Amino acid sequence: MMPRIGLLFMMVFLSACAKQPPPVDDALCQDAPAIKKAIKSDQLNYVPDHVLNPPLNAPEPSLLDPIKIRPCDVVALDIQTWGEHPNGRLLRNSFDKIDGEGRLEFVSETWERSFVRNTDDDSYHVAVQTRKFYLVTSAKPVTWQIYYSHESDTVWMAPDLLMSAQLEP
Q: CA nearest 73: which of 150, 153, 156, 134?
């Protein structure tokens, strides 16, 4: 009787083990130093594997479909902000929050500022295009949320959620 119970237990245990997916290798990206060097040496022309570009004027946050990632992928976050005062007020007032088991490593940031003339009231606006580069250094899911707060709201108001993205292996 005991051998049958042991055999039955072993069959159930082995069938349960066979149904589980293989464990994910969480090794760091081996090419990370070379990739970081390539990004920093030519930020304006580096082509990332994925680009996230949340619209600031959207009525609701962008909820993206899951994005498939692999270790060593480069993900760029593009944000364009507008301001009315080109003489030093805070224009780059966005931030992101990264959660989950996976890891994204910030590599570099570049930005350009351009002046746009409003023909209606002869005023100038400033457009700032910011690109942040992140390196995927693990093979586990990451939840990435991007927030934006207006200049006058940075102290008193909660920021607005612009975009939420799920990065999955």
A: 134
